[in-house]
Amino acid sequence: MQIRVKPLESAGEKALRVSQAPSWQAKNPKADVLYEGQYRKAQKKSECPQTKPAVVVDGPNAGTLLHVCRDEKCPVHAKSTRYQPTPQEKATRAKEALAERIEKQTRARILDAIRKKLPATLSQADLEVAVLDYFQRLGHDNHRGLCRVYGWEEKKTKASWGGTTVDYQNIAAKAVREMKPQDLQHFLLVCALVSDLYCPGYNPRQPLAKDSNLARTAARYKIDTTKLAATVRAELSEPANKLTAKNGKTKAAAQTKSK
After folding, report:
1. Could you tell me the CA-to-CA distances from 80 to 56, 72, 74 in Å, in that order?
2. Is the pLDDT of residue 175 over 90?
3. What residues are paired with 52 via a beta bridge?
4. Domain extents in the chain
């Protein structure tokens, strides 16, 4: 960089120091360095009276000589680097912005009007809307978890892209439409608890957090989680115990036969 700047200094010109990165990316922005957005590149030295030589101070292009313009109102570079819409385009954009505001405000008022008309107890249709929308937002892993909790068949179907996939939303939609209002309310709560089934792979022995929705709901319904854990441990350990006992009998029989 010093080698490139030396001829300019010898000719009495002072090169500006520029970076090709925006200032927010710089860890320690320097006051004597211009960052991207604070200057415009010029093709040659005499493009405008404000054009000055500059040298790139960082990155893979460090040492590259440029000509830049810093004038925000430059009639040459401001036009070439900043798009100026025509009066017709400005009018079109104003109409589009107005249409967007009208649409957003209309939707907000529709929702507010619905909110004011909601009954004390939601109807079956309202519950289905709320439940299916919530289900859709839960994500793939939670969809699988809910299917297994309810015993729904995870049948694969043809996908739009040509392969096969499990359409969890369609599976849930069919099941939800067959539920009674009481079942829908229960399903909504189960949806809120299913994410706590996740056990982190980096620490699979991590116990259920006491402040989790699942733990707090279990405590509210007086469910003995310690007893449940002991039952599960015994059930899952039983095959291993049977295999150990079987191996022991086989070994004993072999020893008896050898005698």
Report:
1. 22, 12, 10
2. yes
3. 68
4. 2-81, 86-117, 121-198, 207-237
Instruction: Return the amino acid letter for 50.
Output: Q
* SS3 of residue 105 by DSSP: helix
Element (H, E) at 68: strand 65-69
Report strand pairing: 33-34 vs 156-158.
unpaired
Q: Is residue 61 within 8 Å of residue 20, measured between CB atoms? A: yes
pLDDT at 152 over 70: yes
Q: How far apart are CA 136 and CA 164, in angstroms?
A: 19
CA distances for 123 relative to 109, 114, 187, angstroms: 21, 13, 15
Distance CA 140, CA 97 (A): 36
pLDDT for res 187: 94
Q: How confident is the model at residue 30 (pLDDT cuts 50, 70, 90)?
A: confident
Beta bridge partners of 205: none
Count of CB atoms within 10 A of residue 64's CB? 15
